[in-house]
Amino acid sequence: MRGNVNAALDYAASMATLKTPADLAGLASRDGPAAVPQELTAAATAAEEYRQRMFEFMKANLNAALDYAQQLSTVKSPSELVELSTSHARKQFETVTAQSTELGMLAQKLTTWNTDTFSGFSKLFNPPRS
Fold it and tell me: Which residues, including other chains, have CB under 8 Å from residue 44's CB and lie 6 or more apart?
């Protein structure tokens, strides 16, 4: 069962990499005069990195849920059930906390690039006052 799920997730990840913003920015930058600004390429790279990590986290969390379900099938007493459930909840809480921290840092990097780009762009319309 896990093999089918992993195959489906791998397929979804490969489909998602077709024509990503980073790929499109790379194509446009080879066109010479129609080059994409470096900020766009950096933002597209950050967005791509965020998307890839999300897929990895989704796969890891799904595998953890499948492991938990498989372990539940071997439980023989209520105390084993409580112990297994508590252990799984603790591990998942730690995992999700670490994942959220990493995604937050990636989102902050993307936001910083976008903010810098837009603030530079707005200066074109608001010349300094004398």
Answer: 20, 21, 22, 24, 25
Q: Is residue 122 part of a domain?
A: no
What domain range is 31 assigned to?
Answer: 2-116
**124 in a domain, yes or no?**
no
Quick one: CA dihedral 38, 47, 27, 36, positive or negative?
negative
Question: Which among 94, 96, 114 is positioned nearest to 104, based on CA atoms?
Answer: 96
Inside any domain, residue 35: yes
pLDDT, tens digit (0-9, with 9 covering 90-100), for 12-43: 666 555 455 555 455 445 544 444 566 567 77
pLDDT at 34: 47
- Asked whether the whole model's pTM tops 0.70, one would answer no
